[in-house]
Amino acid sequence: MGAVTVGKSAPAFSVVTLDGKEVSLSNYRGKALIVNFWATWCGACKLEMPWLAQLRDEYANRGFEVVSIVTDGASEEAVRRIADKYGVKYTVARCNHKTAQAYGGLPYLPESFYIGRDGKVILASADAGSKEEIEANIRRLLGLSPK
């Protein structure tokens, strides 16, 4: 099983988006990034989705991005319906075994990994925090002072 260590490089991943495009960690080189693992059955995941969508839109012009990786086998239609409901405009992809293992097996959902522009993990978070907590972590990633 892989291990994600704060202060170390984020594990590489390669996943396929709902549109069939391959996306990897290297696509986001130089950006501050949240890699968010979730499932369609997960209430806490759906709680934080609109916050992630809003914060991504707010901070995208500062070099911030979100990659959302769905871990269950729900249909593409079900995943799209949830993403649309919560205003998700960021990348949504399907998890695979290798990615799940690289990120510690994902024993809890949602799990978010905050990755700095240098590719190092700044913070790992299991369960949905508050919107304010997520924003504070994003501001930290971007080197901005707290609100």
What percent of the residues sit in helical stretches (DSSP H or I)? 25-40%
- Principal-axis shape equals globular
Side-by-side strand order of the widest sheet: 2-1-5-4-3-6-7
Secondary-structure-derived class: alpha/beta
Contiguous helical run count: 4
Distance between the termini: 37 Å
Give a count of the beta strands, DSSP E runs of length 2 or more.
7
Q: What is the H/E string?
A: EEEHEHEHEEH
Q: Which percent band covers the strand fraction?
A: 15-25%
Indicate the low-confidence ranges by residue numbers: none
Largest sheet: 7 strands, mixed
Overall mean pLDDT stands at 91
- Rg from C-alpha positions? 14 Å
What would your notes on this structure say?
The protein is α/β, with parallel strands linked by helices and 147 residues long. The protein is built from 4 helices and 7 strands. The chain has helices at residues 43-59, 76-85, 97-102, 131-141; strands at residues 14-17, 22-24, 32-38, 64-70, 91-94, 111-115, 121-126. Strands 2-1-5-4-3-6-7 form a 7-stranded mixed β-sheet, with helices on one face. α1 packs across α4 (131-141). The protein is globular.
